[in-house]
């Protein structure tokens, strides 16, 4: 029997919570503490742009927010079909939130396909704004509607607002010298204006954005602006929308500072630039475009003024080869990719392990195997990151928790790579990469000092007294070898993939030396200084201490934390911990696991972290898994965790 746990406060994730009303002119304004909106339409309807603009205005207003863009893998899927539906979900609130929300309170459906594809997520009583112009007989038949859902009673349990968006947009733009097809393209701006009115969003930012985006096409800029204002005015004057809503800024949620809205890939890009500046090294990116990692290449290419060099290679292997060459030359070297690209880069990652050079390999995970689900999210590359190379080739692994946390994860990955002279794998995913949230811009003096010292001269004395440079003479604390920039007089040394002799770096086939080098490289990774694992357990040391720990990694942080909050609000004791470092694990992880009778590990894979935990710590961890290309829902996890506690 399935049980569901959610407190009244947390149920607001999925329901509008009206606190009070106040009249403004002829309309009422209802105050809410949070709302979840989903824009959905054909992949050519501009839903991602619409959602992004609504998000930007919401961020500037001061709300906490979390987003979930969801779009087809095809560049242009067949119009009006279910596979071609693109959506953008935004959850914003006057307090701290963690997820894009389980279910939308408002669905904007631009066509029948958008309505049908999203109705399973829409709870009864939600508002649905429908573009009635697109509900033609042919369009409805294309997605399997025998009769119009706007007329057959199937939407009776919802608050439906039929709006002829296309017609009204064309009418609003009749003064412009545009064809009907050109005018129809602005219907997303009409919808954005209507929703901006409904939720009292600022408009100045969007108006400036349109003027800038279409600066070379002033007529198009003016048309989009007119459509946006027409949508706002329609909301203000129509009788169909008798109430607008207000979600106050999250004034108590954020510490003092300067904030901006940021996506995971953008935060990663900024983190890499900041790391290069803190290390006083040029940043080099060798990359091949791949969804969902390409935005990092796009962003870094804009920042040559910070000493960033970007190279779009002809393939994945060339991309990492160039990056490793840049690392040999003294740069902070990065390559970005997704799971299929990691497979192609594996030999060069092994070479970087052998050469012991700092290299950041950023894997923005997506659904697999093979091409799989390019625009959907998954956490299924953990074992690939851990073991996906020939021979014993250990690599540190770091995973960010939220879109904003990608900045700090990039800094941490750079710290490890530079200090220990090793490639580092950073595991983000599509959910973090494309999702966004508010981010406090750090002060420069808050950033770590990542400066390194290059080798300058001889570091070893031979038996005959000759001073020489040994490229594999190690730091006694970190076991890192010296980093010698090519061209430095007297520091010439051999590189290559064949095993090196300890110290001298000469080619060696000696069995004992090989075993020593293998064990030394492993010891270097095992000895990396990572923080102890923090445990969130308010019941620790009490008579009602939790006996269940939920352990997560990566992007499951938001859904897990939201689920844990619900359980605690319902009086259920439960502890939570989240791993950033997956190789090596925090030194206190074994002790933490030993405190609890049950350990539950939710993952967007078939149990990869659970496999590692079971093998290393002999803990009978319970695995809860999902691999449908979408992030966990908080209610779903709360139910699963409650069943694990009761089981």
Descriptive overview:
The model is unreliable at 1-24 (pLDDT under 50). Helix 1 packs parallel to helix 6, helix 9 (264-279) crosses helix 10 and helix 17 (557-569) packs across helix 20. A 7-stranded mixed beta sheet has the order 12-11-13-14-16-15-23, sandwiched between helices. By secondary structure, the protein is α/β, with parallel strands linked by helices. Helix content is 34%, strand content 20%. It is built from 20 helices and 25 strands.
Brief summary:
This protein is α/β, with parallel strands linked by helices and 647 residues long. A 7-stranded mixed sheet has the order 12-11-13-14-16-15-23, sandwiched between helices. Strands 4-5-3-6-7-8 form a 6-stranded mixed sheet, with helices on both faces. A 5-stranded mixed sheet has the order 20-22-21-24-25, with helices on both faces.
Secondary structure elements and their pairing?
Layout: E1 18-24, E2 27-32, E3 34-42, H1 47-61, E4 64-70, E5 85-93, E6 106-109, H2 112-118, E7 127-131, H3 137-142, E8 159-163, H4 165-172, H5 180-184, H6 187-198, H7 204-213, H8 218-237, E9 243-247, E10 259-263, H9 264-279, E11 283-287, H10 294-300, E12 308-312, H11 316-328, E13 332-337, H12 339-355, E14 359-365, H13 382-387, E15 397-398, H14 405-420, E16 423-429, H15 430-434, E17 436-440, E18 460-461, E19 467-468, H16 511-526, E20 535-536, E21 548-553, H17 557-569, E22 575-579, E23 581-583, H18 589-594, E24 598-603, H19 608-617, E25 622-625, H20 634-646
Parallel strand pairs: 2-9, 3-6, 6-7, 7-8, 11-12, 11-13, 13-14, 14-16, 15-16, 21-22, 21-24, 24-25
Antiparallel strand pairs: 1-2, 3-5, 4-5, 10-17, 15-23, 18-19, 20-22
Helix pairs in contact: 1-6, 6-8, 7-8, 9-10, 9-14, 11-12, 17-20
